[in-house]
Structures are given as C-alpha cells and as structure tokens.
Known about the structure:
This protein is 47% helix and 17% strand. The protein is α/β, with parallel strands linked by helices.
Amino acid sequence: MSIQTDTIAAVATPAGPGAIGILRLSGPRAADIAAAVFRPLGKKGLLDRPVRTLVYGDLLDREGQVIDRVLCTYSRGPESYTGEDTAELHCHGSPMVLTLGLEALFVQGARQAGPGEFTQRAFLNGRLDLAQAEAVADLLDAQSREGARHAAGQLSGALSRRVGEIYSALVDLMAHFHAVLDYPDEDIDPFTQEQLARDLTRQETALERLLATYRRGRQLSRGVRCAIVGRPNAGKSSLLNALVGYERAIVTDIPGTTRDTVEENVELGGVPLRLIDTAGLRESADPIEQLGVERSRAAMEEAELILLVVDAAAEVTAEDAELTRAVTEAGKPWIFVAAKQDLVERSTSVGLIGAEVRAAARTVELSSKTGEGLDSLARAVAELFPRDAGSGYGELLTNARQAQAAQRALEGVRRAREALELGVTPDALLTDVEEALSALGELTGQSVREDVTARIFQRFCVGK
Ligand code: GDP
C-alpha cells in the first residue's frame, strides 16, 4: 500500500453544460478541503454529519461568495473508491460553476488530478486490481450492450477470479515441487509425477481457454470492422442508415472521423460493428478508384466481416459477379445481402450467384426501406461471431496487455509440462512455473512494473 500525501481534485463530468457537474477530491485532506468550500444549510458542519450521506448547501468560490446550491458527500478511507478520504460536490452542470469551484479547491490546497489518477490511487491502495481498473476504462468506452456487460463483469472481478483460480492452482503445484525437491536423492515417484503432469495439463488447458477469449474480447472492445460493398446504387448507404436507425439508442459516432469516411458504430446481433460504407469513398478523382471493385477491395482488406449488397430488384451485372468473386477471394466471413426486397416479388439475384458461392455464404434478403429482414441479418452476424459459451460476463481478455501476459503464462506452464514429461529435474520446472505466476501477476497487477501501470492510467480521462 502506498501512501499519497497530496489531495487531488478534478471535474469528474464531461465538458460543457449539463444537468449535473461533479467536483471530486481524494487524499488526506479531501474532507477538510470540501468542508472549507461548502456551507451546509443546517447548523451542523459537513464533518459533523455522517460519512456517505448527501448534504445540501452552498458552494463558495475562492472569495467566499456563493456560486451554486449543491449536494456534498464525503467518505473516509479506506472505505472509498480510492481507499483514501474522498469528497464530491454535485453542482449544477455549469462550466463556470465548476471552474470557480475547482479554483476554490486549489486555493484550499488541492492540486489538479492527472488522467486516471483517482483510479490509479484505487489500484495503488488495493481497492481494485489492474484488470478491474482497466475495466473502468472499458466501461467508459463500451460500444455495445455486450461490451458494457463484460466490462461491468470484469470490474466486479470476474476476470480476476478466473485468473486467480489458475494462479492458486499453480501455487499449489509449486508447493508439490518443493516437497519433491526436499528429497533430492529420491526420484519422483511415478504417482506424484503423473499427478503433477495432470495438474500442469489442466492449467495449460485453462490458460488456452482464457487466451481464446481474447478474440471475442477484442471484437467487443474495438468493434468488428465490417465493410459494406456492392456496386453503385446497390443500396449500401441505405443499409448503413437502416442499421444505424435499427439500434439508434446505442449508436455513437467515432470521434475523430468525419461523415465522408462513412464509418458508424452499431450493435447487430449482440456484436459491435464498425460499419464502413465504401460508397463514402466515391468522390475520388482517380478513375480506377471510382470503380466499385477497386474501392471495395481496399475496404475488404481491412475488414473482419463483409456485407456484399446486391440489388435484388435489378438484373445482376458483371460488376456484381466480379465483386462476388473478390469477396470470396478475400477469405473473410461474409454475408450475401439481397437488398431492396420491397421492390421484388421474389428475389432473383440470389439465384444468379453460383451454387458453391451460395453454399459458402450466408444469404439474407432484406429491405432497408421497410426494415424487413434486418433481424435475419442480425442473426447471421450473431452466428458468425458467436458468444464464447464457456465464459461468463467479464471473463474475457480485452486488451493486448492482458493477452500477452496470459500468453506468457501459458508458455511457462507448457514448458514446465513438457520438461516434466522429458524427465527434467524439478528445479528447472520451478523456474517455468514461477515465470507463469509472474505473468499472471502482471495480468492482475500484483507483479507489474510501475511504468507499465502509469501508461495504463494515462489512457483514462481526467477525473476518473
Ligand atoms: P449505394 O450507392 O449502394 O450506397 O446505394 P443507395 O443506398 O444510395 O441506394 C440507391 C438507391 O436505391 C436509392 O435511390 C435508394 O433510395 C434506393 N434503395 C436502397 N435500398 C432500398 C430499399 O430497400 N428499398 C427501396 N425501395 N429502395 C432502396
């Protein structure tokens, strides 16, 4: 446990006017500093009230002028988010009030918190392990229901428990090895040897399963890049818009991208997709770029899922056929979308692509105009990117750091198991198991270097 001597403060809510704006404090003087800028309405002072209650009163600026009527609460460490004394002032969401309030906190001795510093302190004080702290950032960034549920599960310790089980099984194994080492002159008896090999294999399998969750975890945290390809007027943009409208409540624009790259995040069949409409690239001056096929090839290279849109109400053209070939050559999961179903009695396009292509692809008939068939598309996506049945919410590895640590743990256990099978002396095995333990410790932050954790918390926003 590390003791921080200074008290940090920050605005904890987003910039701009809002219903509520929160000033947050953590550190040894948090409660005192809050009490200095807050005047409760009743007779009792803030610190005469019980902890973790909401007290109504006035927020004062650096000159003691009332600048808002607010709610204030404080907690005493270690029973707080950061493990230190903390306080919060729930103000009206006025940027000016928050600026003046923060200034008053600084005058009383608080300093501006850095990015993620509250959560970093929670980690340093043992309130959260590193996987849980990362889950806080994942929760803030969640792009889908599934992503949010997994982040919440990880925050409540699901991943840490899964890792912890492997960790403690390996610690038990080490104890066994040590017991064997105590009698160096004796060979390991065959029964013990078999037992150790079995235990190692079991943990190797557990680590392989854990590592396999990274694929899904990455999809949930980053979104599956999905290219919508098809010849001009096939109905790509309409499909994108229909999908955006289909789950409008959770759609967000990716910051930093402009409308003309036409990239949208949607959740479809429980899978977060980053939809890329190649129609958005149409305004190119390069004549080759203007060809649908070339444009689509580029988008498909980056994609993890391809939706090939064909206008089911029109004759299939050579360009459709060529695109279909390009899509199959791309070798990625793809869905054949026979669009504009409201314009056709019975789809004709589907019959016009080859039987073997049809067998390889999933075919969905839909109308972006009426919304008919969008649920089938959602089902097809869900089938292509199934939930990991063996993992509960929050038990997934969601970032490269976690995956690398799990990979190293797996390699250590695998080396130990192989060495045991080859009859290598137990002390050599111990080194491998120790390495696996240390890698697992990194995953949860038990044995991680300070500069690594610092980098992780840099990802967070100020106030978190
Ligand atoms: P893109 O060039 O592939 O992006 O095609 P658009 O989405 O711009 O659509 C081309 C034309 O087809 C537009 O006039 C759309 O209104 C129309 N369209 C697209 N999807 C549908 C649909 O499901 N039903 C009907 N009736 N028209 C559609």
